[in-house]
UniProtKB/TrEMBL annotation:
This is acid phosphatase. PANTHER family: ACID PHOSPHATASE-RELATED, PROSTATIC ACID PHOSPHATASE. Residues 1-19 form the signal peptide. Coiled coil: none annotated. The lineage of its organism: Eukaryota, Metazoa, Ecdysozoa, Nematoda, Chromadorea. It comes from Pristionchus fissidentatus. The keyword Repeat does not apply. Keywords: Disulfide bond, Glycoprotein, Hydrolase, Signal.
Amino acid sequence: VIKMRLPALLLLIFTGAAAFHIPSHEEKVAAWNKLTVFNCATQDFNEGVIDGYKLIFVNPIWRHGDRGPTEKYAGDVLDEDDWDFGGGGYGELSPIGMEQHFHLGEMMFERYAEGGKFLSERYRAKEIYARSTDRNRTLISAMSNFAGMYSRATAVNGTDYPAFSSWPVSFVPVSIHTEDQHHDHVGDPDADCARQDDLWYKLAHEHPEYINYNNKPRTQQTLDYLINATGSDKNGINFDNVYLIRGGMLAESIHFPDNFSTWYPWYSADVKQRVE
Ligand SMILES: *[C@@H]1O[C@H](CO)[C@@H](O)[C@H](O)[C@H]1NC(C)=O
Ligand SMILES: *[C@@H]1O[C@H](CO)[C@@H](O)[C@H](O)[C@H]1NC(C)=O
Ligand SMILES: *[C@@H]1O[C@H](CO)[C@@H](O)[C@H](O)[C@H]1NC(C)=O
Ligand SMILES: *[C@@H]1O[C@H](CO)[C@@H](O)[C@H](O)[C@H]1NC(C)=O
């Protein structure tokens, strides 16, 4: 999770406009797209700011890039040692993820810094504050991001980075702040929180919507199929942990495309779609 110095003002403006008209889902998506870097890297960031107002603060938030599975999941044929990238082991950022973030950083540069239109073209410590959750993959995503944003030929040799031939070409280090994951209640949805546990285990699990969805024949058939196919314990795969199969399969299909269908013939397109 990264913050950049620019406006809370924007929120006020949109709240004001919304008082007259409740936007449809499509309108919200279109409005959101206008503000996201993905869809408008080259679009003027001032678009959407009303006359007489000036953009002074921007607070973008994004997730990590492509990673390996976070743990061994039911049916997984691989072990932790098979995951070598990003420092090795479970849940690390892959080189694909690093590249994704590098490109995102390039887009941020185009949108906010090119020509000094909002941020300076060089890393200025007082203009930008970056915060990441305390996970290797998010910290390295942030580093990759700022490499794409500020490590460029226009960075000043000997000032922005050392004038030293072995230093990675034009690499400008940018500080990334973090908070211990147990106490990071801003960025980490898994931070320690008794209230969240209560809401999830007592309120959500006992809610008719959850119970009905969990008890649906289609849900139970899918879980039973997965339990059988992976040879798991009767209660080994449930509605709460099936996401691990989804995430693990996604990672293995990306990183072992040649072996994937041989390893998991039972993970057909239909099963994949049900799991997702
Ligand atoms: C970060 O990497 C270290 C070393 O591989 C590992 O022990 C640790 O579990 C990782 N932690 C997180 C939160 O990614
Ligand atoms: C920066 O200057 C040093 C010393 O002159 C030189 O060795 C290095 O290649 C330069 N780096 C870049 C990216 O130009
Ligand atoms: C359980 O899996 C085995 C293969 O491991 C398969 O032959 C059998 O048909 C499956 N049973 C059900 C009910 O899906
Ligand atoms: C993937 O399959 C190929 C042969 O098709 C094999 O040589 C290779 O070792 C397999 N990779 C893994 C990680 O098992």
